[in-house]
Structures are given as C-alpha cells and as structure tokens.
Amino acid sequence: MFDGVSLDQAPPFEAPLLFFLTAPLFAIVGSILLEYGAGEFAILHAFSIGFLAFIMVGALLQMLPVVVGVKFERPKRVALLFWLPLVGGTLALIATLGFGQLSLALFAAATLLLALGGFALVTLVKLFKAPRKSDAVIAMILALLSLLLATLLGGHLLAALARGKELSLLPLHGALAGFGWVGLLIVGVSYQVIPMFYITQELPAIVRRPLAPAIFAALLSYALFQEEWLFKVVDGLFLLFALATFWRLFQRKRTVKEPTVAFFQVAMIFLAATALYGLFHGHDWRYLVAFGYGFAMSVVYGMLYKIIPFLVWFHLSSRGFFDIPTMRELISERLAWLHLYIHLASLSLLLTTTKSAAPLILAENLLFLWIIKAPILLYFRYKKRPSPFATST
Amino acid sequence: MIKEFMTQDHRDCDALYAPLEEAIAAQAWDLALERFVPFKEAMLRHFAMEEEVLFPKMEEFLGGGEGPIHVMKMEHNQIRGIIDALGEAIEAKDRQKALGYGETFMIMTQQHNMKEEQVLYTMAEQLPLDKEQILAQMQKVEGR
Q1: CATH architecture under which domain B2-140 falls
Q2: Within a 10 A sphere around the Cβ of A303, how many other Cβ atoms?
C-alpha cells in the first residue's frame, strides 16, 4: 500500500549543497558576461539555468523526500549524475550563445537534455506515484512538465542554430521555461514553505486549487495558438498569486522582522509589478528582468537563508551534536539585510542602465557566498568528528 | 478523522508559539515565560497522543523497527531537546539564543508536521484501525 513512501530523514546535505553553491558562481559568471557585453541570450541563460535551475534542482532533491515521501536512491550519486552534465551543458550553452561557438551547440543540447530532461522525467515518474497529490505537488508536476517541454524546445532551437536554420518556437521555449518551470515551481514551493516559515494561512482554496492548472493551461494555449492575449491571462493569474501571497504574508502570525520574509515580500511586489507591466505595457526585456531577477531570484535568496542553516542544524543534531549554534547564529542577519539592499540596487540598475548593474550583481553573489560560508564550514567541521551517539553506545 | 484532528492540533500549537516569539523579541521576559508554559504543555501533549496511542496502534500493522514511526519518534526527541533549550534561554533572558532556538524549533517542527500530515496520518486513515476509539483515547491524554 505504501510502496516507495519513506519518512527517512532528509537526503545528505551534500546533495542539494552542490547545486546551491554552483548557482551563485554562475550568477557571477553572468555578471562578468554582462560587464563585457556578451550576447544577451548567454547572459540570460547564465542566470536562468546557471542560477535558477541549479537552485531548483537542488531544492527539489531536498524537498521531495520531505514533502511527498518520494526519495532518490543513493542521493549523492544521483546529484552528481545530474550536476556534471548540467555544469557542462550550461558552460557550452554560454559559449554557444555568447561567443558564437556553434560547434558546441549540439554538445550543449545533449548534456542539457540529459541533465534537465532526465531530471524532469525521473522526478515526474516519482511524483505520479505519490500517495496523495496536494495542490503544491500538482504545481510541481506541472512545473516539471514545463521543464521537460522547455528543454526539448531548447534542444530543438540549438539544433536549428547549429544548422543555421530559422529559430522558430523561441517564444514558446521562453514562456514554458520562465513562467511554466520557474513560475509554477515557485507557486508550488510557496504553497508549501510560506505557511511553515512564517505561520500564515494557506491561500484560500478557491485560489490555491485552480491556480497552477490554470497557468499551465494558459501557457499551453499560448504555445498552441500564439495569441498575445493568452499571455495576458498568464499575467493576470500571476498577479492574483502575488497579491494573495503578499496579503497572507502581511497577515502572518510571526511578526518578528527578519530579512528572509522581506525577500519574499520584495519578490511578490516585483511579481505583481511584472504582471501589471505585461498586462498594460507588453512583454519586453524589462518584463523578463523584473520576473527573473526581481521575483524568482528574490524568492531563492530568501528561501536559502532559511533552508541552509536549518539543514546544517538538522543534519548535525540528527547525528547527536547538540552544542552547535542555533539557526539565527549561523546566518548574520545584518549581512542578510545588506544583501537585500544590494539586491534592490542591482535590480534598479538592471531595469534602467542594465550594464552598470554588473559590479553589484557580482558583489551581491560574493556576499551571499560569504554569508552561507559559516554554516557550511561548521557542517563539514562537525562531520569529521565521531558522532556522540557512536561513542556513547 | 484522525488526520483532521491531529492537523488541527498542529495548527493550535503553532498559534501558541507565535505570541511567545513576539514576547521574546520584545524582551518581555515575564510574559514570555507565561506563554512558554502552555506552549510546552501543548507540544508535549501532542507528542504523548502520538507516542502513547496512535503510534502503537499503527505499529500493530506496520511493525516497529527502523520504519517511519521510528523516524517520527526520533524527531520528537530532537524537538523536545530544542523546547528545553528554548526554556533555558528564556529563563536566562538571552534574546539572541531564545530567538535562535525558537527559529530552529519552528522549522524543525514544521517539516516534521508536514511529513506527518502528508504521509503518516494518511497512512493512519488507510489502515483498518478503530478510529473513533483512537480519537477518544487521544483526547484523554494529558500533557506532562
């Protein structure tokens, strides 16, 4: 009756950490590409795959065992198996799109199909077997379906590029990758983590239930009919999500001020602004920057400042170490606030003069690495020690 | 039936924690201590309902050993440890430590609750248990 269901403690920290640490490095690569004026699609993918997809694959490896009780056998090996082609594929893609290395296009397509397409397929199969599908899980399934489609379309585009053919289907690839995969995954993850981080009520069922399927349906209709107004439906739905989530955060029971909730609030404000911009102005590069950097990346930073110290504490205390610092002592709150301000500054520069944002993006991601250094070093320092459980028995 | 009841009890415990955290943040230590006592009682009572009534009934079907119920009990022990440390930090009037243990308590408990609500209680509902009897017995359990 309960095949494949496990309540095992979370997968080893190394599995998601590998992805969490690679992401800011690619953001730094992105800032350097921006500074030196490499092709815009190379810059875009340094952030969309290099930063966001790495974080999201890592977060799913971490969350799925906890949220739905599906787990990956040998999580460290699985992580490495996806990580290697994802790194190779992202670098090859940046070389292809940024430096015209068309000979690498097929290599990029193959490795990314293997990493992202493979990950989406394996995870989908596992999710379909989940005993109960909450609204969050349904949103995650639709996000992974979007990832699979976006990756296939991306592979098709790379093949066309390598053969010098016309790049049809480009808007569909972008729509599914950005708003299907990134957007729907954040919807699903928010359903799950915002109530638990901040003690908020869930979104009302009348919004929560149909939202992800409606976004996915609107995206698919857009893909099929390519009517601009269908994308405005997507905007309207994300606007609803942003406002409802912002309202829930406003009503949260935990009222202590701290930077992670501010990151989430900033994210929802930018999502609402993005949607309004799309509805009344159009879908240009500013729309993408506001969605990707303003909404998605803000959520990611806010979430990681909670998840990383928690996982360090959790894994060490599970091994019997109780003399470790608490979560709040592991992350410098002062520096996390500073990060938020730099993030807002880089965002406003990105939206106005664009290129001048590069040094701030670099600084922001170096600061991010600096802030998470303390908990990560602590984890590896304690890991080398024998567990007190082992010595006492 | 079990699932609804226990899920609601999780929410009730959350509702007791939020004002406690507020009092700690404001360094209103007498108020914090006053709110800590019923909060701790509610948490321990919830654990007792599971460990004394629900889990043994489920183990009759699932067996003991290293299974999911064992993992849940281990996490109960981790959470009990944090609650005690939180109480000590409140008595010592150490804001930073108390907020730190509070944060750790909250996320540890939330991810634990999530596993119970998504997986364990669903299992309980599907097993051929006498749910009304279990519910009645759980309601009789007292916190310590």
Answers
A1: Up-down Bundle (1.20)
A2: 22
